[in-house]
Amino acid sequence: MAEPVLDAKNITKSFGRHVVLHDMSLCVERGELISIIGPSGCGKSTFLRCLNFLEIPDSGSIRVEDVEIQKASGQGWNRAQEHRAHALRAHVGMVFQSFNLFAHRTVLDNVMLAPRSVKGQAHKEIEPQARALLAKVGLDGMAERYPATLSGGQQQRAAIARALAMKPAVMLYDEPTSALDPELAEEVLQVMRTLDDEGMTQIVVTHDMRFARAASDRVLYVEKGQIVESGESETLFSAPEDPRTRRFLRTLL
Ligand SMILES: Nc1ncnc2c1ncn2[C@@H]1O[C@H](COP(=O)(O)OP(=O)(O)OP(=O)(O)O)[C@@H](O)[C@H]1O
Ligand SMILES: [Mg+2]
Predict the structure, then answer these.
(1) Which domain holds residue 112?
(2) Residues 175 and 83 grouped into a single domain
(3) Protein residue with its CA nearest to atom 22 in ligand 1
(4) Cβ neighbours of residue 94 under 8 Å, at least 6 residues apart?
(5) Residues, CB-to-ion distance under 5 Å, ligand 2
């Protein structure tokens, strides 16, 4: 079997005395679309942020492609680790609920910014790639617009194009459609389905159970900082094994 794209082992995280993640592990095969679901405050965002070291776990190890970082509990975070985290993040695209586009830059500039500054690529080389990414997410013709002139769904698709511009091995999304009306959310979800068809590896924290059920290969149910259950999406929704998963799914009816 091919090597997993991302392998997170025994991730723990506390904020002060509050243990938010207890020993969470997740191994992701290339091309998988994984949804992470669970009640508010259970640690979904914290776990996702740990996967690219936006949040430094207290302990555990994470490997993405050829970059592995281990953190022992009680050990500080040193420059060498931060340097490696930088290398790891280059393989990971992140999309937030609130889009986080640069307001004073055009959509095209937003997409070109990271390849230009991080990878030092020439404008000439990246502009056609950036325009192609905008076409892929359905924003052709909007390259010169400013974020404020786009709908929320369009802004989120621009944010996806911006993340894709770094040619990530895996895309992480934290509630990418929560700020959107259903029809705008659907445009964003459609882009994610297309990326899935093209073989992109994606991990999505979502409250959209319909999308999680229909589009994911695998769903993780998280409660109190633990992965309670993980399984093929249809199985997890139609025949959850753990009583906690059953209880959570019942509350959504
Ligand atoms: N920077 C922080 N400092 C202190 N506590 C935090 C911090 N970030 C998160 N927490 C706490 O950690 C717990 C998990 O938060 P997290 O945001 O990961 O939950 P979530 O599952 O994403 O919830 P939601 O569905 O509401 O987004 C919560 O109790 C939260 O208050
Ligand atoms: Mg969250």
Answers:
(1) 99-167
(2) yes
(3) 45
(4) 52, 54, 163, 171, 172, 173, 174
(5) 45
